[in-house]
Amino acid sequence: AQSVTQLGSHVSVSEGALVLLRCNYSSSVPPYLFWYVQYPNQGLQLLLKYTSAATLVKGINGFEAEFKKSETSFHLTKPSAHMSDAAEYFCAVSERSNYQLIWGAGTKLIIKP
Amino acid sequence: DAGVIQSPRHEVTEMGQEVTLRCKPISGHDYLFWYRQTMMRGLELLIYFNNNVPIDDSGMPEDRFSAKMPNASFSTLKIQPSEPRDSAVYFCASGDRRANYGYTFGSGTRLTVV
Question: B25 and chain A: CB distance < 8 Å anywhere?
Answer without folding.
Answer: no
